[in-house]
Design brief:
The complex is a heterodimer.
Chain A (H helix, E strand, L loop, with lengths): L8 E4 L5 E6 L9 E5 L6 E4 L13 E6 L2 E6 L8 E8 L6 E3 L3 E5 L1
Parallel strand pairs in A: 1-9
Antiparallel strand pairs in A: 2-6, 3-4, 3-7, 5-6, 7-8, 7-9
Chain B lengths: L2 E5 L2 E3 L5 E8 L8 E6 L5 E7 L6 E3 L7 E6 L4 E6 L8 E8 L6 E4 L3 E5 L2
Parallel strand pairs in B: 2-11
Antiparallel strand pairs in B: 1-3, 3-8, 4-5, 4-9, 5-6, 7-8, 9-10, 9-11
Chain lengths: 108, 119
């Protein structure tokens, strides 16, 4: 099976660093993508190909990878970053797509 | 600009059927793969199905295989999702989403349409 595992929740104070992990056996050879979703809104891509940041996404968002775990890091968290975050990947032929269970980021 | 507008959601009884549509604009629809992704109330995102640009190849999540059918009409810039044998657990917001031209991610999303399966 193709599964991605995220922690259900992460809490940080404003200005601190938030780290959200995503684990899965397939991640050692497939790229991971990260989305931010705020209530009532469609998801927005914040990181692609593990570490790349789309234009328009603040520099405080970054990605890293180590083996079968990828990490979304938000440095200097702001209140507006409070949202649900989802990792996503796909198999090598784009026939199976999967999301992690999502992580709720709370800014204290 | 790219726009994806879903329609067709509503309330349906268990065992019933519903057809969703997603009208695309602002890009050459016939050259992009398209997805349906759903989100049950208060839950996470779940990929449902993917159809390649020409409609010839279709893929489904195990949870909907054999019950849902994805199709597209490139002459009408429209993506469809025929949902049959609906269950309570199919209750969700259904989003259509465009696959990026080169990479394996969703680069544009619609605002979603709510499907409620209830007696």
């Amino acid at each position: 099976s193709f599964e991605l595992t995220q922690p259900p929740s992460v809490s940080v104070s404003p200005g601190q660093t938030a780290r959200i992990t995503c684990s899965g056996d397939a991640l050692s050879n497939q790229y991971t993508y990260w989305y931010q979703q705020k209530p009532g809104r469609a998801p927005v891509l914040v990181i692609y190909q593990d570490i790349e940041r789309p234009s328009g996404i603040p520099e405080r968002f970054s990605g890293s990878t180590s083996g079968t775990t990828v990490t979304l890091t938000i440095t200097g968290v702001q209140a507006e970053d409070e949202a649900d975050y989802y990792c996503q990947s796909a198999d090598s032929r784009a026939t199976l797509w999967v999301f992690g269970g999502g992580t709720k980021l709370t800014v204290l | 600009q790219v726009q994806l507008v879903e329609s067709g959601g509503g309330v349906v009884q268990p065992g019933g059927s519903l057809r969703l549509a997603c009208v695309a604009s602002g890009f050459t629809f016939s050259t992009y793969g398209m997805h349906w992704v759903r989100q049950a109330p208060g839950k996470g995102l779940e990929w449902v199905t993917f159809v390649r640009f020409d409609g010839n190849d279709k893929y489904y999540a195990d949870s909907v295989k054999g019950r849902f059918i994805v199709s597209r009409d490139n002459s009408k810039n429209t993506l469809y999702l025929q949902m049959n044998s609906l269950r309570a657990e199919d209750t969700a917001i259904y989003y259509c989403a465009r696959r990026d031209a080169y990479l394996y991610y969703f680069d544009f999303w619609g605002q979603g349409t709510l499907v409620t399966v209830s007696s």
